[in-house]
Write a structure and sequence with these properties.
Blueprint lengths: L1 E5 L4 E6 L8 E3 L5 E3 L6 E3 L16 H12 L7 H34 L11 H9 L1 H38 L12 H15 L9 H24 L16 H17 L7 H5 L11 H30 L9 H9 L5 H38 L5 H21 L7 H8 L1 H4 L1 H10 L6 H31 L20
Antiparallel strand pairs: 1-2, 2-3, 4-5
Pfam families: Aa_trans
GO cellular component, one term: membrane
Subcellular location: Membrane
Length: about 500
């Protein structure tokens, strides 16, 4: 798989045989910060102060809540009513409640594992994985999920943000002679990326707090808009709440597993929890767990207040008539596009664009952090403003190329999401056992072992269901052929 190099700086750098911009930085935990018994102040290592994740440690509960909300709520939540249409009322709500409680618990584990002991801080997910499972197994288990959930999410945000920008301008200027209607999908992706790169010039994760606040506000707004519109517009004729008949028993099992996957993947952001906590000051008297956990509670409460009404109201309004490959926005466009004001649709598209721009910054930050580490490892000095700008332009260009070249990446979302799911539901449980070493056969040992094994089994089942669906239905794997995501189906004219 690769090798581990110990540099002359206080880092252990994980290297793979295939170069990747998403490789991680693994600082030695005992040198991340050292407690000073007299002053009780934090003493960070010099190189930690040069990297964008840990450069500024002035964050708090509110800034962490902003980051978590901006990275945690996305348009993947539009699929929740689709999941309910496959599961029905009881099992849909039960699975949503279970997924919410499970992901909240694993976030609590990550918050506690960020500082498992005095003088130890793990500010990157792959770093914690290597410490818990060892260099080889830690890289093997966590490298691909971290890579996908950072770079892959940025690619999807370009797809969603660029597509929403295209739809926004279509509704603003309906005239075919308008220059906005002459831009191709790839050109809209480039416009979105240029805006994202401009925002990315902020130096570090803590300086993105205002951007994350805007991202959180827009995510809350479009979720609220959609579930309120679903209720006020009323139900179309022929709405039923009985799960549709499947072609075979195997098809029915596949539909159920796909629906469970939609619910599980609606909760995201675990791969940046440790990074967000790394922006907070910490010392033995005031550890970072306290404000971070307050931020988690606030963000998860608001997330629940967005996702539960979205799922319940969306399913109530459209039942099993909701488009299986679309979502709530697609259903609103299909059934109420004629009697929905253009101003409302413009507002929703604008909110999605702004939220995608803000979320891009959070998910790109681990990549920026790693690329800057490579620079300071060779030069033994901080990145200049121009070097940082070049790194951000490089990553923006790379993600745009992938978004244009592999525009069908969203069709592989259930498959890749199933592979990455253990990072959210399973690995934190096993990390707790490996690092905290709870009493064997005790309550915490059984709880984490059971949840960890269940997360792995669920991941295997979701991957199997995704593969079966691809084999059965196929995918439109056309390269360099940009098209709108089904989640962004425009209103009917």
């Amino acid at each position: 798989m690769g090798e581990v190099m110990v540099e002359e700086y206080p880092f252990v750098h994980v290297v793979t045989t295939v170069p990747s911009p998403i490789q991680e930085v693994v600082p030695k935990p005992q040198e991340d910060w050292l407690p000073v018994s007299d002053s009780r102040k934090e003493v960070p290592s010099p190189q930690e102060g040069w990297l964008p994740i840990t450069e500024s440690r002035k964050g708090g509960a509110f800034t962490s809540a902003f980051h978590l909300l901006s990275s945690g709520i996305g348009i993947q939540a539009f699929l929740l009513p689709v999941a309910f249409s496959k599961l029905g009322w009881f099992w849909g709500i039960a699975c949503l409640l279970l997924a919410f409680a499970w992901q909240l618990y694993t976030k609590w584990l990550l918050v506690q594992l960020h500082e498992p002991g005095p003088g130890n801080r793990y500010s990157r997910y792959l770093q914690l994985s290597v410490v818990a499972f060892g260099p080889k197994l830690g890289k093997l288990l966590a490298l691909f999920p971290v890579m996908y959930l950072s770079g892959g999410t940025c690619v999807m945000l370009i797809n969603y943000g660029g597509g929403s920008m295209e739809l926004l301008f279509r509704t603003v200027c309906g005239d075919s002679s308008c220059i906005a209607n002459k831009l191709t999908g790839a050109e809209w992706f480039m416009v979105f990326t240029c805006l994202a790169i401009i925002v990315a010039q902020l130096p570090n994760l803590n300086s993105m707090a205002g951007v994350s606040l805007l991202g959180a506000a827009t995510a809350i707004s479009y979720c609220t808009f959609l579930w309120i519109l679903s209720i006020t517009k009323g139900r179309p004729a022929g709405v039923s709440y009985s799960p549709p008949e499947a072609e075979s028993r195997m098809a029915r099992i596949g539909e159920v597993l796909t629906a469970i996957g939609m619910i599980a993947l609606a909760f995201r952001g675990h791969n940046v929890v440790l990074e967000i906590q790394g922006t907070m000051p910490s010392n033995p008297k005031h550890p970072s767990q306290e404000p971070m956990w307050r931020g988690v509670i606030v963000s998860c409460s608001i997330t629940a207040a967005c996702l539960f009404p979205l799922a319940i109201a969306g399913y109530w309004a459209y039942g099993n008539r909701i488009p299986a490959n679309g979502g709530l926005l697609s259903a609103l466009s299909e059934f109420h596009g004629q009697n929905t004001k253009k101003l409302v649709m413009r507002m929703i598209y604008l909110l999605i664009v702004v939220n995608s721009l803000c979320s891009y910054q959070i998910y790109a930050m681990p990549v920026f952090d790693n690329l800057e580490f490579r620079y300071i490892s060779k030069k033994n000095k901080p990145c200049s403003r121009w070097v940082r700008a070049a790194i951000r332009v490089f990553f923006g260009g790379l993600t745009t190329f992938i978004a244009v070249a592999v525009s069908f990446l969203g069709s592989l979302g259930p498959l890749i999401g199933g592979i990455a799911l253990p990072l959210t539901l399973a690995y934190p449980c096993f990390m707790w056992i490996a690092i905290k070493k709870p009493r064997q056969y005790g309550a915490m040992w059984y709880l984490n072992l059971g949840l960890g094994c269940s997360g792995i089994i669920l991941s295997v089942l979701l991957v199997a269901a995704a593969v079966w669906k691809i084999v059965d239905k196929g995918i439109d794997a056309s390269f360099f052929n940009t098209h709108l995501s089904p989640l962004l189906k425009p209103p009917q004219s």
